[in-house]
Amino acid sequence: MAESFPGRKTWVIALVTSFWTYRKTRNLAVDLFFKTIRRLLMSLPHVRRNQVVKYILNKPTKQSRKLLHNTTLPHGSQWNYIAPLENTGINKSMTVAGHWYIKNIYRHQGHHPYGRGAHAYVERTLDATSDLVLLYIHGGGFRVGSSTMYSDTYIHWIERLEKHHDVKTSVLSLHYDLAPEVNWYRIMEQVEQAYLYLMALGVPSSKIIVGGDSAGGFITGMLMSRLKTKGHPMPLGGIMVSPLVTFEKTSASYTKHAGFDCLPDSLLQQDLSQLFPELNDRPNDDVMWRQQCLGQVSPLHADMTHTPPLLVTYGQRERFANDVERYVAHVTKQGVDVQVISRHSEPHVYVVTPLLASSLRAWASDASRVADWCSQRIKQSDVY
Asked: Which PANTHER family does this one have (predicted)?
């Protein structure tokens, strides 16, 4: 009787199965696949890549949300840094949700996939294990976006801060409710609650930097003013990436860069009464009153005196470019310490979106400068 040996097919299945079930090799394969896809995308002309993002943002809200979420999901070894923040908060009336980005957090996930067992560990140890905590508010015109859409950039910041500055960093990427389901005032309550939640975990405000891009940059600017008005401890600083700072559409760059930039008219010309219900109190043709009303809730007109240092980044070929320059002049006049990162050939939010940058080198260079600024801020604080 012939001896029985596994056939070639059995060996192949066994090798593939063992390869795929081993976390490191599985992640290596997935990372290699996505790296190849990125190289192919980056080979497209710059304006074409901007148009891909514009196409997604130009879709109806529900479709745009789904497309943006699915195309920016973390992959492979990125999950080693990610743990969901389970709905929690400092009171029952308001919860905080989002994702933690912390190096090797997967080791504390227990038996749950993708870090779902790590939340309690983070809450117990956040202050002791982090030199710096970054609360980040994603953009998306208040209507789209998710807390996992900038994994590349969060991880780049974490690694840069540890390897080059010996600063251990945790990022809380916030999930907040979006319009039209909620209005502006609810969004601001959620963001304020997230900031207070970090302090309730024992993290001093002098360890916290608040940042955001586009609409998230708008929220960041208004949060600074809100915290000051309410008498809360102020954060160590603020990062505003290509921030929306006004609802005016009169700047030269708004029209000049419309063809190149990734921002579609449909997102910029949304019905603002869904964000600010008070706009329904008067007819739409009362332009002066609407401008006055919106000015009261815009960073460009906010009182920023006695607020922490800011880092503002923008691309000189984005539609917000001139508005951002006006904002920098506004806060500088009010005595705020402002540093600016800007690059000539770049569009909206290129600092946090590699696909939108003119090259991966340009993205990595300016993303590193953001991390370097954070290091400078924390090393000047009283807790480092």
From this structure: AB HYDROLASE SUPERFAMILY PROTEIN C4A8.06C (PTHR48081), ALPHA_BETA-HYDROLASE (PTHR48081:SF2)
